[in-house]
Design a protein that fits this description.
The chain has 184 residues and is mostly beta strands. The chain contains no helices and 14 strands. The protein has a four-stranded antiparallel beta sheet with strand order 4-5-6-7, with no helix packed on it. Strands 8-9-10-11 form a four-stranded antiparallel beta sheet, with no helix packed on it. It is globular and about 45 Å long.
Length: 184
């Protein structure tokens, strides 16, 4: 089991945490059962936080991260999250805003993000078959004066994708999408 974590007190630094077991009698994981990785980014190269995890296989895992460099950053693990490769920039713009990503039941990947290096006025949904080449499929929001941020996504048992996000810093908006309508 993996979880993303980050710190912001001495620059933006991302980590991964792995559960090493065991579960206690109540089915809970003790804090001692989690192992925190070293920093996944060099602070002077990438300021990155809030990893979103994409599991490609039992051994291949990708994380996408919010960064201060006006792009979404990524890192890959080839050993199930034990070790991580160097963090690099993707081609996806981002204004240092929160993102979320998930693997669909059909194996494709979805990403919700602000597709601009400077503004949160648009919020987009993108799809990928490999986690590398992303194609924007819809704009969830597009307002010159709006701010749409801090998205979260899940796929429910009925297959629908549910997306929530901060709408104009005033409310939380919920959108449901049938992934079957997203062209492969």
């Amino acid at each position: 089991m993996l979880a993303g974590s980050s710190t912001e007190d001495d620059g933006w630094v991302a980590h991964m945490e792995r559960f090493g077991g065991p579960w206690d009698a109540q089915g809970l994981a003790s804090a001692a059962a989690w192992q925190k990785s070293g920093p996944l980014n060099a602070k002077d190269e990438f300021g990155a936080i809030q990893p979103a995890i994409l599991v490609h296989s039992a051994t291949e895992i990708q994380i996408l991260l919010r960064s201060r460099q006006r792009v979404i950053a990524e890192a890959w693990s080839k050993d199930g999250g034990v070790s991580w490769g160097r963090m690099t920039a993707t081609s996806l713009p981002n204004p240092s805003a929160g993102i979320d990503a998930l693997r669909l039941a059909d194996g494709r990947f979805l990403l919700v993000y602000n597709p601009s290096p400077t503004s949160r006025a648009k919020l987009a949904l993108a799809v990928s078959g490999d986690g590398k080449a992303w194609r924007q499929v819809t704009l969830l929001e597009d307002e010159s004066q709006g701010e749409f941020s801090y998205p979260a996504m899940i796929q429910s048992r009925d297959g629908q994708v549910h997306i929530t996000y901060t709408w104009r810093r005033d409310k939380i908006k919920h959108v449901a999408i049938d992934p079957g309508t997203i062209e492969k």
